[in-house]
Amino acid sequence: MDLSLANPPNLHLSLTKSLSSPFRFRKPLPFFTSSVSHPRVYSSITSYYHPIKAQSLNQTNTPTDADDDDDGFILEDVPHLTNFLPDLPTYPNPLKYSQAYAIVKNTFVSPEDVLAQQIVVQKGSPRGVHFRRAGPREKVYFKSEEVRACIVTCGGLCPGINTVIREIVCGLNHMYGVHNILGIEEGYKGFYSKNTMELNPKVVNDIHKRGGTILKTSRGGHDTKKIVDNIQDRGINQVYIIGGDGTQKGAAAIYEEVEKRCLPVAVAGIPKTIDNDIAVIDKSFGFDTAVEEAQRAINAAHVEVESVENGVGIVKLMGRYSGFIAMFATLASRDVDCCLIPESPFYLEGQGGLFEFIQQRLKENGHVVIVLAEGAGQEYVSQSVNATEEKDASGNKLLLDIGLWLTQKVKDHFTMSKKMAINMKYIDPTYMIRAVPSNAYDNIYCTLLAQSAVHGAMAGYSGFTVGPVNSRHAYIPIGRVTEATNVVKLTDRMWARLLASTN
Ligand SMILES: Nc1ncnc2c1ncn2[C@@H]1O[C@H](COP(=O)(O)OP(=O)(O)OP(=O)(O)O)[C@@H](O)[C@H]1O
Ligand SMILES: O=P(O)(O)OC[C@H]1O[C@](O)(CO)[C@@H](O)[C@@H]1O
Ligand SMILES: [Mg+2]
């Protein structure tokens, strides 16, 4: 079987072979139509998947019945420029001549390499969903001197954004000899309303040591048509988009427009979010750094409350809809008595309520530390302050301050009940955990992400996201990472570990 998409001359051969291949594909519902009828319509950025029962394509692109012995293998593929530009020429990958890669046994990823989404399986279970493995391909679809790339960063900050920018620039330059790279300033709106900056290895040399993004970022302002007009006007043919779920939806919209206009433009999404709420990928970059930084706040709270009588420490951490930062920071710390996250409802009064728990811990231990994700208990705050729902420029709901609300509630409870006098220490390190530079682990992770994106774009994939799936980097259809939000599963063992660690 041959999964090669990177080789038009062999295309028919590939597809003919795949006729008898045991691969099942998952086909998108066509919410946009390709102007060119081409077998690679299997590739998808849409969020609308429906699995087709054992099916393959013949050369006229008509679904035919396939063998029943495919073991339930599904490839969720990413789009390729040849979907709508079948005659694009190819070139040998310059890495072939790289001294650094000279001793590598397999410099290029085999077109047949795929990664399984589920690696814990039972005997006899279907082989399930697979993604294309990321990495350099033997043939590329761009001449180095003709590449005009751009990078944009959108949404909230996250440790490691500058490292990703640096490694895209250095990867393009050192591995592929690309010299023409533009930084788009201030997010999506920067395409049509801001300046650009020339990026080269010298300009980005030190930026990984700094938090934030040298390109600046923003929310809102995504105007697909204006953005693609601008891409066209500037002659850009590779677009690297770093951002969270909203940004990736924007990247999908840009790719759709690129496809509609039949532009030879590779659109690569690099997922970014401090909340670790992006589906499919193992973990988002910067998350580790943020958890590490959160330890400092928890340590401070612990030191404070341990040093006074009846000390109650509350630490508020980021996490809009997902409590991953709070959960991992709690698990790592061992000083936390209670972790409140959006996924796990809680109540204050009565038996089993938070007040009772605090009182009990104070009696037993003399102090208590509570870690609180910002998205937890939002319903209580909105009821009590009668707030109207406000949104940010991207349409995300603005959260109410659960930290201050809970702090006041706990204080009021103990004052009014006269049961014991407490010493409240409230720490809100919110932005501090995401404004720091990335740690060593995240720096390496960011490098791999950036290089995977560069290899994918050079290989002609477009409208894809990169990310680790079971520790190996994959090209993932954008729709797959935006269709759902990754949340803490209370039925998983990790949450049980947390409950065990906090007693
Ligand atoms: N459905 C969408 N279609 C097109 N563009 C979108 C969509 N949702 C969001 N965007 C754009 O993506 C950019 C970033 O979105 P948002 O502010 O939601 O942050 P994000 O990428 O989700 O990152 P994070 O949540 O981690 O801060 C904004 O410019 C916004 O206009
Ligand atoms: O930067 P802003 O607009 O204040 O947004 C903060 C939000 O961004 C995130 O860091 C990522 O979505 C959330 O955890 C937080 O609620
Ligand atoms: Mg988001």
Automatic annotation (TrEMBL):
EC number(s) on file: 2.7.1.11
Top-level lineage group: Eukaryota
Pathway(s) it belongs to: Carbohydrate degradation; glycolysis; D-glyceraldehyde 3-phosphate and glycerone phosphate from D-glucose: step 3/4
InterPro entries (UniProt xref): ATP_PFK, PFKA, Phosphofructokinase_dom, PKF_sf, PyroP-dep_PFK_TP0108
Chain positions recorded as substrate binding sites: T273, I274, D275, M318, G319, R320, E374, Y431, M432, I433, R434
Cellular location(s): Cytoplasm
Pfam families linked to this entry: PFK
Substrates-to-products reaction catalysed: beta-D-fructose 6-phosphate + ATP = beta-D-fructose 1,6-bisphosphate + ADP + H(+)
Binding residues annotated for Mg(2+), in chain numbering: D245
Any single GO CC term annotated in Swiss-Prot or TrEMBL for this entry: cytosol
GO molecular function, one term: 6-phosphofructokinase activity
Domain Phosphofructokinase positions: 149-455
Active site: D275
Binding site residues for ATP: G156, R219, G220, G244, D245, G246, T247
GO terms for biological process, alphabetical: fructose 6-phosphate metabolic process
Chief place where the protein resides: cytoplasm
Activity regulation, free text: Allosterically activated by AMP.
Record's keyword annotation contains Metal-binding: yes
Keyword presence, Kinase: yes
Cofactor(s), by name: Mg(2+)
Positions marked as site (Important for substrate specificity): G246
Enzyme class (EC, first level): transferase
Self-association and partners: Homotetramer.
Function: Catalyzes the phosphorylation of D-fructose 6-phosphate to fructose 1,6-bisphosphate by ATP, the first committing step of glycolysis.
Family: Belongs to the phosphofructokinase type A (PFKA) family. PPi-dependent PFK group II subfamily. Atypical ATP-dependent clade 'X' sub-subfamily.
Protein name, UniProt field: ATP-dependent 6-phosphofructokinase
Source species: Deinandra increscens subsp. villosa
